[in-house]
Design brief:
The chain is mainly β and 191 residues long. The protein is built from no helices and 19 strands. Strands 6-7-8-9 form a four-stranded antiparallel sheet, with no helix packed on it. Strands 10-11-12-13 form a four-stranded antiparallel sheet, with no helix packed on it. A four-stranded antiparallel sheet has the order 14-15-16-17, with no helix packed on it. The two termini are 28 Å apart.
Length: 191
């Protein structure tokens, strides 16, 4: 978050680079085990996304078999296995919770201190991106077919409060304005 360190996946590790001279600061190993859930083997090496928490204390990777969380100071690693493949993610502003797309038709909210999933939001369309408003009230998901879906995190209700056909193609980018009153979406259709 302070712009001094870049995290990138390299083979079966995450490499931390110093942004002033591009030297390798550290190499964080991914869990080497293969997780077996029911009748499916899911190798962990498939990191889908990397993101620093807003306070800079955590680095999180989503993978085919779960969340991998590193403490940025100690480099201590925690692995939280999941039932579905994870991909895009967004932090709550206070860095305590993480929203992550799980499978195709749901977004999960994880309590990172408790190390557990606390809510599941069923999506009407196949999710492609997620965003959380700066105040932490709104969760948005962009769908593969151009729909935007919105949930009010303050209500405790897991059903969406708004859905809109925003574009004709997938939505890889969503961003709330700093005041949380507007949501911008970017689509593969160029709009």
């Amino acid at each position: 978050p302070d712009g001094t360190m870049l995290a990138t996946r390299h083979e079966s590790s995450v490499v931390l680079l110093d942004c002033t001279n591009w030297q390798v600061l550290d190499t964080l190993q991914l869990p080497s085990a293969v997780i077996h859930t029911e009748d499916t083997f899911k190798p962990l090496e498939s990191v889908r996304a990397l993101k620093y928490s807003p306070d800079g204390k955590l680095l999180v990777a989503t993978a085919r078999a779960g969340l991998i969380i590193w403490n940025t100071a100690s480099r201590e690693r925690t692995f939280l296995p999941t039932e579905s493949a994870l991909s895009t993610m967004a932090f709550m502003p206070d860095s305590t919770h993480l929203a992550v797309r799980s499978g195709l038709y749901r977004v999960e909210l994880w309590d990172l201190a408790a190390k557990k999933k606390v809510r599941t939001f069923p999506a009407k369309e196949s999710c492609f991106s997620v965003a959380i408003s700066p105040q932490g009230q709104w969760l948005a998901a962009g769908a593969i077919n151009g729909h935007v879906e919105l949930w009010d995190l303050d209500t405790g209700d897991d059903q969406s409060v708004w859905t809109h056909q925003a574009h004709l193609s997938c939505l890889p980018a969503l961003a709330f304005s700093p005041d949380g009153r507007r949501l911008a979406s970017g689509s593969a259709d160029g709009t």
